[in-house]
Design brief:
- Pfam families: TEN_YD-shell (PF25023).
- This is Teneurin-like YD-shell domain-containing protein.
- Helix content is 4%, strand content 46%.
- It contains six helices and 64 strands.
- A hairpin with a 5-residue loop joins strand 55 and strand 56.
């Protein structure tokens, strides 16, 4: 019991455990099945020790999800080498089967029709040797040395070799295309140097307790870290620091920016976020007294006030209302949601400014769990590697290669292919060539071929095309020059790796490192959270921006009286713009994204637009419902528009899914930052998660975009790490098929709940400025809830026979686990 929030749990004599949370969600676990291997040799013990095999969760009054497991032996029971079969049923329908052959150490995953999906072969130590998919994709082969350390892997044409030092630490990564990356350690086995294939060196230094203190760049400038309860981060070349204060339980209390501006976080006694206060305004979060679920956010700042009301049913968001202050001149909105028994959204209805949203239904494939309807579009899989999305007028198709990389996308309208884009990849999955074919009604096909070249660190060097591009970088990753149409534009930087000159134009910064003037002499203003609030140019424009409590762009206003509101209602992609509304003329634009998260459709009144995008979701061409190309956009590799056939057709979704402001040419990106595609840099430093990027030095730059690789942004080039990754790439969405295999991700939080980790606003979304996660002190927990947590059925990772060692560390995980201190503790060591 926490305040008025009561969680009840009981255990019954028939091997059943039941739990009811304060939010009215329920969990019931039963031990029914006897393990067949135990039953074959010790039948009495098998009856006394049944397996936890049936589990039911209930959300709201009627959404009930039941998962059960049946175990059996295949073949002769007397055979000492058995095949153990396991079937997963959800709501009385089989969704997955797993068979493990003890003799061959092979584990095979089947779909509901017992068609094989994936086979994993293990060595005697239980380490995976091969992953063999049955959809035609390449087999992944993994080798190990005599100490059971990964020696290398080969997946199709792609491969990587690992070398270790005498202490068993990773010392080299060898790639046949890019060369060797070297890792050096000190006498205490701490990583002290990362040498990239280009021979650029990044040095790491630590305090006496092994906490990271400095990361030294090739130029000699340093990232500086310090603190435990009070964390200090100093950017390279700067004397001013970011400060963050944490409580003993690890909660962020305040963030102080280099010029002294601060954000303060307050919490209720229960530990839930209560208030966020900064110099320009504040946000107050309230929760239900009985269920503990969020029910309102009040946002107050100059020129923007709103109340965002939430209505939950056992953790499922059923309704949200957004009511703006009367003086804002903004339109209110309401959205309602419906779910199926797997807790998946199936219907969205809403109203913005008195206008009803178009019908938006979702449906899911009972075999794979993947979406088979999104709004007006149906989704089918013609082949294992080919997907089609269609609405009766337009058909979008995408084809993957044998490494699950997209090799072709196409758009067909009324039976005529109007757009096609084909991709070739190098050994590392980077795009090496694109071939774009476009055709307008009654016009010949136009072909555009681009060849991309990369350095051994993965930075884009050039694009060979009808209009070629070239780029040059220094050792810190700063772009030194840009070449286009034979013209070279030089750039200059200061000691803090901030661009100060682009050609003859100058860039200026404030003390926080935020761009306040660019090369076009446009001026920018920010709030105390570092969010862009105003962009001006004398005699040209004056644009203001307002944000919601998740730092998403909510409203844009300009000096011409234009007002634009942005709405977001996709819980799976909370920063994806769903509707765009103009309260002045009542113009509502509804957007639809495909199963990849790429924009494909926009509707304004009765006008329908179909959007063809590239590999990262950037619109390339827009067609009307008759198949006519009504807008074509060409960009630099970093996203700057160099040609737009129809800029008056308003569709702000732009580079990599961000929101373009056509007046400033800046893009509000999904991560909450503003991006300048002209120079490929962020307008504000990306300092929040810099610690996570230490192991990949090319990504550490505070301003550069995606390690100087704008082409493969968001493209998943990593090898699948386990059966969950493989099934997901094959097209089986386990979380959608069997949500109870992911008990920590259920609506309303983990089941059973934790006393110290209560359902609150998502910290990653609210507290976007958290530099590091402070280790939480030991807190009181319920022994009974912990007992139930042990008794619950296994999660998705435990579907595999072999579980990962809880003792062995991953030598390939090089991210520092803690930061150091600049001084001794108050009472010494």
């Amino acid at each position: 019991m926490i305040g008025a929030e009561i969680t009840k749990a009981i255990t019954l004599t028939n091997s059943t455990v039941a739990l009811k949370t304060a939010a009215e969600s329920k969990l019931e676990i039963c031990a029914i099945e006897r393990h067949p291997l135990l039953e074959a040799y010790l039948p009495i013990e098998a009856e006394l020790l049944p397996v936890w095999s049936k589990q039911t969760t209930t959300f709201g009054e009627y959404l009930i999800n039941t998962i059960s497991t049946t175990l059996s032996l295949v073949g002769d029971v007397r055979n000492p080498q058995q095949i153990l079969s396991r079937e997963i049923h959800v709501n009385h329908s089989k969704v997955l089967g797993i068979e493990f052959d003890q003799f061959t150490s092979k584990e095979t995953f089947f779909d509901y029709e017992k068609m094989p999906l994936l086979t994993v072969t293990y060595d005697p130590a239980g380490l995976p040797l091969t992953y063999t998919p049955y959809n035609g994709a390449d087999v992944l082969n993994i080798t190990y040395d005599s100490f059971n350390r990964m020696d290398g892997w080969k997946w199709g044409d792609s491969q990587l070799k690992f070398s270790y030092d005498r202490h068993g630490l990773l010392s080299e990564l060898t790639s046949p295309q890019d060369g060797i990356q070297i890792f050096t350690y000190d006498e205490t086995n701490m990583l002290t140097k990362i040498t990239l294939a280009s021979q650029r060196n990044f040095l790491l230094t630590y305090d006496d307790n092994g906490g990271l203190r400095h990361v030294t760049l090739p130029s000699g400038t340093k990232y500086k870290f310090s603190g435990i309860i009070r964390v200090v981060y100093t950017p390279p070349g700067s004397t001013r620091s970011y400060l963050q204060h944490f409580s003993n339980s690890g909660k962020l209390l305040q963030t102080v920016f280099p010029e002294g501006v601060r954000i303060v976080y307050r919490y209720y006694d229960s530990g839930k976020l209560k208030e966020v206060v900064h110099g320009d305004g504040k946000m107050l979060y309230t929760y239900s007294d009985t269920t503990g679920l969020p029910n309102q956010v009040s946002h107050v700042e100059k020129d923007l006030e709103y109340q965002w009301d939430y209505q939950f049913a056992s953790g499922l968001l059923m309704e949200e209302r957004i009511n703006f202050g009367a003086k804002t001149g903004l339109s209110n909105a309401k959205f309602t949601y419906e779910y199926d028994n797997n807790y998946r959204l199936v219907n969205l209805q809403g109203r913005i400014g008195g206008q009803n949203l178009p019908l938006y239904n979702l449906a899911y494939n009972f075999k794979t769990g993947s979406a088979e309807q999104i709004g007006p579009f149906k989704i089918i899989k013609l082949k294992a590697n080919e997907t089609q999305v269609y609405d009766g007028t337009a058909l979008f198709s995408s084809v993957q290669n044998s490494r699950f990389l997209e090799s072709r996308v196409a758009l067909t309208i009324h039976g005529m292919e109007v757009f096609r884009m084909e991709f070739s990849h190098d050994l590392h999955g980077r795009i090496s060539q694109t071939r774009t074919y476009t055709k307008n009604v009654g016009v010949n096909t136009y072909t555009n071929i681009k060849n991309y070249t990369w350095d051994c660190d993965g930075q884009l060097l050039g694009v060979e095309a009808q209009e070629p591009w070239g780029f040059r970088y220094d050792d810190n990753g700063n772009m030194l020059s840009l070449t286009y149409r034979g013209n070279t534009i030089p750039m200059e930087y200061n000691s803090m790796d901030r661009i100060i000159k682009f050609g003859e134009g100058q860039y200026k910064y404030d003390s926080r490192g935020l761009v306040v003037q660019n090369a076009r002499e446009e001026k920018f203003h920010y709030n105390s959270k570092g969010l862009l609030t105003r962009a001006t140019k004398r005699g040209r424009f004056d644009v203001r921006y307002f944000y919601d409590h998740l730092d998403r762009l909510l409203v844009r206003k300009d000096n011409f009286g234009n007002v634009t509101q942005f709405f977001y209602n996709n819980d799976q992609a909370p920063r994806e713009v769903s509707q765009i509304y103009s309260p002045r003329d009542g113009k509502l634009m509804s957007l639809v994204y495909d199963n990849r998260g790429h924009l494909i459709y926009a509707q304004v009144y009765r006008h329908k637009y179909y959007i063809a995008t590239d590999q990262c979701g950037t619109p390339v061409m827009i067609f009307n419902q008759y198949g006519e190309a009504i807008r074509e956009i060409m960009r630099s590799p970093y996203g700057h528009i160099v040609y737009d056939s129809n800029p008056y057709l308003y569709l702000p979704i732009d580079f990599c899914g961000g929101i373009l402001d056509q007046v400033t040419s800046l893009v509000h990106m999904p991560n909450g930052k503003v991006y300048d595609p002209l120079i490929g840099q962020w307008m504000s430093p990306l300092w929040e998660n810099v610690l996570e990027r230490v192991a990949t030095p090319t990504q550490m730059h505070l301003y550069r975009f995606n390690g100087n690789d704008p082409i493969n942004m968001g493209v998943d080039r990593e090898i699948p790490k386990d059966h969950i990754d493989w099934l997901n790439k094959i097209g089986v969405n386990l979380k959608s098929l069997a949500p109870q295999l992911f008990m920590n991700n259920l609506p309303g939080g983990p089941m059973p709940p934790s006393l110290s980790d209560k359902f609150s606003w998502k910290p990653d979304e609210i507290i976007a400025s958290q530099l590091t996660t402070s280790e939480r002190a030991t807190e009181a927990e319920s022994g009974f809830l912990a007992h139930i947590n042990i008794r619950r059925m296994g999660n998705a990772k435990q579907l595999s026979v072999y579980s990962k060692s809880a003792l062995k560390t991953d030598v390939i995980d090089l991210v520092p686990k803690k930061i150091g201190a600049s001084s001794d503790p108050p009472f010494g060591r």
